[in-house]
Amino acid sequence: MSKIHIMDEILANKIAAGEVVERCSSVVKELVENSIDAGATEIKIELQEAGTKEIKVTDNGSGMEKEDARLAFSRHATSKLLDEDDLYRIETLGFRGEALPSIASVSKVTLETSTGEVGTLLRLEGGHIISESSSSARKGTIMTISDLFYNTPARLKHMKSLYTELANITDYVNKIALSHPDITFTLSNNDHVILHTDGSNQVLKTIKAIYGLEVAKRMIHVANEDDDYVIDGYISLPEVHRSSRNHMVTLVNGRVVRNMELNRVINDSYHSFKPDNRYPIVVLEITVDPSLIDVNIHPTKMDIKFSKFEELKELIGTMIREVLHQKTLIPHIEVEEVKKEEPDEVEVKEKPKYVEQQLFVERTVEEEENPYTKVETPLIVNEDFVNKEEVDYVTPVVTEKKDRLPEIYPVGVVHGTYIICQNEQGMYLIDQHAAKERVNYEYYMKKLGNPNQASTPLLFPITMECSNSEFIILKEHFDTLRHLGFVIEEFGVNSIIVKAHPAWLPHNYEEQAIRKIIDVLIHCDKNFSIEKFNERTATMLSCKMAIKANMKISMEEIEHLIDDLRNCDNPFNCPHGRPTIVYYSNYDLEKLFKRSGFENKV
């Protein structure tokens, strides 16, 4: 008797469902993508108990005829691919024809759809159509999924908590809303609205709906392109960051994708602008000819392959680095004003329309055409993003390199750590340790990147004993140290002797610096690169040799430190990403002392 037989179609669909329908968010993803492919401009997602009880997706797309509605639940039934050639130029979000039969096989489905004439109502259980009737002629589709995994208890018990399921759905809807800002999305759970976008085709408004007004105010528009790729989107100022990479959203031709390499390039572009263990908020739309990408890799269609991937990474990295290096990145500390009733006869001062050092995101129409254009005109209040009642904010003035820090004058020090400065615009606080770290970092990076071979001999050579594994690594990189100006040799078993060092090592800290540099070299990654070694060495030396907190310095030293900071390529952050300087406007100071609402009578 034969042991091999053809699997029952329903059983095969249940197995296929494991590739497509892993949890509630998988169902939402497939249904929403179908709605987008159908040309919907309004999509409403209603959940009951985070989707475990019911998922209802309503759209105003093209709808389906009766025959198409029945056929849609057959495996590999699709309107999006006609032949093999179409597989290499996919322009729709869905194309496999597996989602609906897979979902129907593990749930109870109600489909109501119409092209604008007589509608069709289908009810399915476990993949079988159990009833069919006519429905209203409302154009569009309503898909209701109930009791997900009711007939596959093994998969049901592996579902996460309601909060986890809801978080996964919300995360997906947030990203698909960012990829299609021209569509109105509404997401609700147990009749409570979680997200609503207005479909105005403005990405910044969608960012505001997801992350809030304060984050949206601190987003920067970016754009770049070459012969193959067009990139457009928003990146957050370095002061806005999160603990997870999940907020770096990359979109390709309207599709939400995940690519660890692109995320790494984006995050590396922020290096020294933010803490290394924090990640920016980024929304980048990549437009490319469909023939240059392959989305037919994984059933989720979120992993894709790029042609000319190295060019794309360089395009993105260069774009972000150039934008960040052109911005004035002094965090503006805004004081929240406590509203209270004032006497009728008191005149209220008008809030300044703009302040020179305030940082913002939305550009004027002229600027958006070329995001790298330097602005020489006065600051312009943005009136297009939100209502005037909600916020006043302005575009930043982009100044020439090496003149990005405003002219400021020191007046004192708080706790031996924070330097107080002022100018006509307001007050500045400088962290003396972070500022000196930045100055040192750029000095050592230049020395490491351009070694002049000038060495200083040691009166008493330094010997170091290593473990056998450390000695092997160190011996492999003797040439790197010699290139920097070290005179280094083997000295017995698993030992070295240093007879001379680069002349630029900090005075009176030579031995400490030598030991630190060798330690950095020993503990570099397996994939050694001189760039990473130089960066880590400069970071280590800059921190160890910087002014410490609570260390008293003279006013002359303070002025010299500020001058050095002004000459830095990035005067706004230490090498670890912490801010070197923060800013309080005159208006903020007046609010702190309750002076902003009253005319001075004296």
Short note summarizing the structure:
It contains 18 helices and 24 strands. With 602 residues, the protein is an alpha+beta fold.
Counting copies of identical and different chains, the oligomeric state is single chain
Count of DSSP H/I helices: 18
Strand order of the largest sheet: 5-4-3-6-2-1-7-8
What's the Cα radius of gyration?
Answer: 30 Å
The residue fraction in helices comes out at 25-40%
Structural class given helices, strands, pairing? Answer: alpha+beta
Number of separate strands: 24
Mean pLDDT: 78
Summarize the structure in words:
The protein is α+β, with helices and mostly antiparallel strands. 31% of the residues lie in helices and 23% in strands. It contains 18 helices and 24 strands. Strands 5-4-3-6-2-1-7-8 form an eight-stranded mixed β-sheet. A hairpin with a 5-residue loop joins strand 1 and strand 2 (54-59). Helix 1 packs across helix 4 (99-105), helix 9 packs parallel to helix 10 (309-325) and helix 15 (510-522) runs antiparallel to helix 16. The longest helix has 18 residues, at 162-179. The protein is elongated. Residues 14-18, 80-84 and 341-401 have low confidence and may be disordered.
What characteristics describe this protein?
24 strands, 18 helices, 8-stranded mixed β-sheet, 602 residues, alpha+beta, elongated, 31% helix
